Amino acid sequence: MASYLVTGASRGLGLELARQLASFPASEVSRVFATARGYAPELEELAKKSSGQVVVIKLDVADEASIKQAEAEVEANLDGKGLDVLINNAGILQYSPNGVNTMDNLTESFTTNVLGVHWVTRTFIPLLQKGTLKKVVNISTTVGSIALARSFHPLPAPAYKITKAALNSLTIQYALDYEQEGFTFFALSPGWLRTDLGGEVADLPVEQGAKASLERIMGAGKEQNGQFLNILIKGWDKAGWRNQYDGATNPW
């Protein structure tokens, strides 16, 4: 009976993760704290139908005061128990069509994609320390892999790539600091999904990516601490190009 917190749950992958988590019986998933910056109609409707299993929490990852208020609300809803799994999903993708030298969005991207994850994680660490699973998942992407940078160079989003590479590094620092306490920190690439962020021509429907992501999240143990994981999709494990959803460990 595990509790989950998902940031950026108003739409896309975050919303679908919350929806699929809510489909598990309460004996497996006791509570899903789904966060959003503002009013999120689909998320509110999901919560209304969940009989209390889904709790909507207002949280802006770029605002430390908002994060602290959200932590207090989550703690009040845990009835003295700890938080088991934190999924840092909130993120932004911004473009620089004319190349890296015209990039003027790095600060905003860094605040959301890196600092936001850091602020949320360190604020919720005390609740996670009281939890049973002590699992933190940072939603990343192979687009941020330095080893695969040449393959993904055609995507004109340098700020996204740079900040996801930094997120991967942040993940490792947390993994090393908290491994002796039994924590499992890992980065996860959920695939190129058909969302507002991924676009209509992406590889996978969001439902499939979310399902495969939850399989990795729920199946991960301490041996995955500090790793950069890929999802597994049958038929995509040997696709023959850069997007191979083979369930392997991705190169940094």
Keywords:
252 residues; alpha/beta; Rossmann fold; two-stranded parallel sheet
Layout of strands and helices, then pairs:
Layout lengths: L1 E5 L5 H11 L6 E8 L4 H9 L4 E5 L5 H14 L7 E4 L17 H25 L4 E5 L9 H4 L5 H21 L5 E6 L3 E2 L9 E2 H14 L7 E4 L22
Parallel strand pairs: 1-2, 1-4, 2-3, 4-5, 5-6, 6-9, 7-8
Question: How would you briefly describe this protein structure?
Answer:
With 252 residues, the chain is α/β, with parallel strands linked by helices.
Strand content: 15-25%
Unreliable stretches (pLDDT < 50, length at least 5) are none
**Chain-averaged pLDDT:** 94
Question: Structural class, from secondary structure content?
Answer: alpha/beta
> Can you identify the CATH superfamily?
NAD(P)-binding Rossmann-like Domain
Please indicate the count of domains.
1
Subunit organisation of the chains = single chain
The neighbouring-strand order within the major sheet is 3-2-1-4-5-6-9
Number-wise, the strands total: 9
Question: What is the CATH level 1 assignment?
Answer: Alpha Beta
Helix content: 25-40%
What is the count of DSSP helices, taking H or I runs of 4+ residues?
A: 7
Largest sheet: 7 strands, parallel
Topology-level CATH name: Rossmann fold
Architecture per CATH nomenclature, i.e. the level-2 architecture:
3-Layer(aba) Sandwich
